[in-house]
Design brief:
Radius of gyration: 27 Å
Low-confidence stretches: none
Shape: elongated
Number of domains: 2
Strand order of the largest sheet: 3-2-1-4-5-6-7-8-9
Distance between the termini: 70 Å
Largest sheet: 9 strands, mixed
CATH topology of the largest domain: UDP-N-acetylmuramoyl-L-alanine:D-glutamate ligase
Mean pLDDT: 93
Helix content: 25-40%
Number of helices: 13
Structural class: alpha/beta
Length: 451
């Protein structure tokens, strides 16, 4: 297992600093080492106090770590004073450390200062010339370059100025001056500018963003990725960590470095649940209820926001004689329309994450009632032309907003050549399949009584 070192401050609120770094190292399969430069009395709302660790003890920590472990890369975070910076750089030189990622922490998320004014020159003159890369945000880049950044032209000029301080690479985070819907970072290697883009997720829970990104970059470098590939992987890592950020405390919640691990675990659960749901459907007389467009059983990840986070059966569930079949096992990102149905549920704050479509004939609707399923209807012809939320279905969204609850069944009468459709909704694919089984039983009873 590769070993990575963070030299940073401790966040007693657990969202940034040493705590965020160690979570990131662990999430990426690395053994995390730490040298603490300062203790903060801090929570999600602000910093109440800072106690700097004496320089000689910082050096003792560094000696203890560097004489025993094979450190593959290092990231620095909060280095509050020039004396701290000089202690760190002294040991970096002594042990000839490379692969140094500098997160020039200057201000906490709450706005509290974390870098003393006199430390700025030591950061520029002592640490950056020894470093592989520095990762300032826009405000930090303005301080390092001593200029105002009002657009892309100024941003690139600032990157050049920072590069001239002696650091090999510069990454300016949050260069979203032109593109508000995208999170754009700028990498400058002394020759070219690279724009690294990802979706921007609107959330106040971004505490620890800079720490987590720089820790991820140090991790991928330790894992022997090329520099550019390490930067791209780090961008993906922090984007998911922001997307899956969460509430903790009453102020700014943290990003989630463990999101990738949770996501893989949840993906497995979703795919397994879909397969279990399909097995239930195979045991019931479902074929008569399958519409002309065939059926799609889908299930989303928790807190899903886009189609790629919803899984289903490629090619849909088809009827073959009196049986149903799925052409292959479940996969993510394969059912556009039904994905929009479950995303509407999540968008409106419901925890139900699965749906299946069936015919909407009168006898099917009667069977829904007989099975005791709650039902609501909408009219497709009422959909406004300016409905812009492409990721969710208007009809499902309309019912949830106007009725104030999530029914078991949402149906429509069709329009404009589109087949009338029933949507069976539930907390997961197994739940939906059990509801469909009850519906199929009721349908058989109805058809039996009319024959």
């Amino acid at each position: 297992m590769k070993e990575v070192l963070t030299i940073a401050g401790s966040d007693s609120g657990g969202g940034a600093g040493i705590q965020a770094d160690l979570k990131t190292f662990a999430a990426l399969g690395l053994h995390g080492l730490s040298v603490i430069t300062a203790l903060t009395a801090q929570n999600s709302q602000g910093v109440r106090g800072i106690m700097e660790v004496p320089g000689d003890f910082i050096e003792s920590q560094l000696e203890a770590v560097l004489t025993d472990f094979n450190v593959s890369s290092v990231k620095t975070g909060m280095l509050a004073s020039s004396s701290v910076i000089k202690s760190v750089t002294r040991k970096i030189k002594e042990f000839n450390i490379s692969n140094i990622v500098v997160d020039p922490v200057m201000v906490a998320k709450s706005g509290d200062p974390l870098l003393q004014k006199e430390a700025l020159e030591a950061l520029k003159n002592e640490l950056l010339p020894l470093s592989l890369v520095v990762t300032p945000n826009l405000e930090e880049a303005e301080v390092l370059a001593d200029m105002k950044i009002a657009g892309e032209k100024e941003l690139e000029k600032a990157a050049v100025i920072i590069k001239e301080l002696g650091v090999k690479m510069v990454i300016i985070k949050g260069g979203h001056l032109q593109e508000k819907s995208r999170a754009v970072d700028t990498l400058y290697d002394g020759k070219e500018f690279y724009k690294l883009q990802a979706p921007r997720y609107e959330t106040k829970n971004t505490h620890g963003t800079g720490c987590t990104l720089s820790a991820a970059l140090a991790s991928y470098l330790a894992l022997d990725y090329s520099f550019l590939e390490a930067v791209k992987k780090s961008k993906e890592f922090i984007t998911l960590a922001i997307k899956d950020s969460y509430e903790a405390g009453h102020g700014y919640g943290p990003v989630n470095p463990m999101a990738g691990l949770y996501r893989e675990k949840e993906k497995y659960r979703v795919l397994t649940n879909l397969q279990e749901g399909l097995e239930i459907l195979k045991k019931i007389p479902l074929a008569p209820l399958v519409p002309e467009v065939q059926s799609s059983l889908v299930m989303a990840l928790p807190q899903a926001k886009e189609k790629s986070e919803v899984a289903g059966f490629p090619g849909r569930i088809i009827k073959v004689g009196k049986e149903i079949r799925a052409l292959q096992g479940p996969e993510f990102n394969c059912s556009r329309w039904m994905s929009r149905v479950v995303l509407a549920l999540l968008y409106n704050g419901y925890e139900w994450r699965s749906a299946l479509n069936l015919k909407a004939r009168e006898d099917v609707l009667e069977a829904c009632k007989k099975a005791g399923l709650t039902m609501e209807r909408f009219n497709r012809e009422e959909e406004p032309q300016d409905f812009m939320k492409e990721e969710i279905e208007w009809g499902t969204d309309h019912v949830l907003k106007t009725k104030g609850y999530a029914p078991d069944v949402i149906y429509d009468g069709g329009c404009c050549g589109m087949e009338a459709m029933v949507r069976i909704l539930g907390k997961d694919a197994v739940d939906v399949s059990h509801k469909v089984a009850a519906l199929a039983k009721a349908y058989q009873q109805i058809k039996g009584s009319t024959q």
